[in-house]
Design a protein that fits this description.
Layout lengths: L2 H15 L1 H6 L4 E6 L3 E6 L2 E6 L4 E3 L4 H27 L19 H24 L3 H24 L8 H21 L4 E7 L7 H11 L3 H7 L4 E8 H4 L9 E10 L8 E3 L5 E4 L6 E10 L9 H10 L6 E7 L2 E8 L1
Antiparallel strand pairs: 1-2, 2-3, 3-4, 5-6, 6-7, 7-10, 8-9, 10-11, 11-12
Helix pairs in contact: 1-4, 3-4, 3-5, 4-5, 4-6, 5-6
Length: 341
């Protein structure tokens, strides 16, 4: 799968991050103590609760909100998909529905990106459905399915494109991403292990590598952010206090395990030809390899604040791994990074 194709998933992912902001901004929140639930909230004149184990708002059922969210899902996502189809697919030849095997491309970093996108979309959808006040089981079902369904629609569009095709590997990654969210909600009623993302722009002393990076990953910062697999790191960040509630571990402290890759200047190898068959890039001397990381992290959602705007901002920023030192392992052995993006 090309970076242009796979970045569609990350595009939808970052769009999903902001779905909840407008909704949560509509409510005036007043936090106060409550003997039975641990914390009580006065929300538009009604007292609702926050579960002490998940620190999550429990909204009263609102039929109008249910209809609004249902319509927004159909109309809003339909509009997004139409725009995506026009922007990405209109310039490419169409074909009959077909599949192709891209599991060997990009050292599977693109597949992890699909999983992250599905996870984030499921999480965002779940929070929007929470706002309607529907039951926990229903919002887990609707939220959990959303990520997989939204991403599968993208796979279907790929399937009708002559330049790409339906990818069973991408589809499987989408299911895994939504599953990571859904299983935790069912088991713990919270996300103890969060899927996160970090990025650092790669630049090289060898100008031919910088030129090649510009050709396949783009020139602008946003393009590199979405497409450059050499600069992306994906993390599973576990909150220690959630697993050891009686300990004195700070509520916000996480431990994260991450993965990334280096040396990728083509989907399967560092070689490229133009349409005339002329070799435009050939660097077999550059090794393609995976990296693994261990690093402390901060769960921004655990930082206590009574300010609504600050809380929303922390929830949005929490999809990114907090820059911290990391221990790296790769084919080069162990390495310590003082500051890891």
């Amino acid at each position: 799968m090309s970076p242009t194709s796979s970045c569609k998933s990350l595009f939808i992912f970052f769009l999903s991050i902001f779905l909840c902001i407008k909704i949560f901004a509509q409510d005036s929140i007043e936090i106060k103590k409550n003997i039975d639930t641990g914390i009580g909230i006065k929300l538009q004149g009604k007292l609702v609760s926050i579960k002490s184990n998940s620190n999550a708002l429990q909204y009263p059922y609102n039929k109008k909100r249910v209809k609004a969210v249902a319509i927004a899902n159909v109309v809003g996502y339909g509009a997004i998909m139409y725009g995506l189809s026009s922007a990405w697919y209109s310039g490419f030849a169409k074909s009959k529905m077909h599949s192709f095997n891209d599991n060997g491309e990009w050292l599977q970093i693109d597949k992890i990106g699909h999983a992250l996108s599905a996870y984030a979309e499921s999480k965002a959808s779940y929070e929007v459905w929470r706002w309607t006040g529907i039951s926990r089981k229903k919002r887990i079902l609707l939220g959990g399915l959303s990520g997989a369904v939204f991403q599968t629609i993208i796979e279907t569009l790929d399937g009708f494109s002559a330049d790409w095709g339906w990818s069973w590997g991408d589809f499987g990654a989408n299911i895994i991403g939504s599953g990571i969210f859904t299983v935790q909600e069912i088991a713990w009623d919270e996300q103890r292990i969060q899927f996160k993302f970090s990025f650092h722009k790669r630049s090289y002393n060898d100008q031919s590598l910088n030129k090649r990076s510009t050709e396949i990953f783009g020139k602008s910062e946003p393009e590199r952010f979405l497409k450059d697999y050499n600069g992306q790191t994906y993390w599973l960040s576990a909150n220690l206090k959630s697993f050891f509630p009686k300990s004195k571990i700070p509520l916000w402290l996480n431990v994260a395990v991450g993965t990334g890759a280096e040396g990728m200047f083509g989907a399967r190898d560092n070689y490229a030809e133009n349409k005339l068959g002329n070799v435009t890039f050939n660097r077999p001397d550059i090794q393609r390899y995976r990296q693994w990381y261990l690093s402390p992290d901060i769960d921004l959602t655990k930082i206590k604040t009574k300010k609504r705007g600050v809380k929303m901002l922390l929830n949005v920023l929490n999809v990114f791994k907090f820059p911290m030192p990391s221990l790296e392992y790769s084919k080069n052995g162990f390495n310590f990074n003082w500051f890891h993006f």
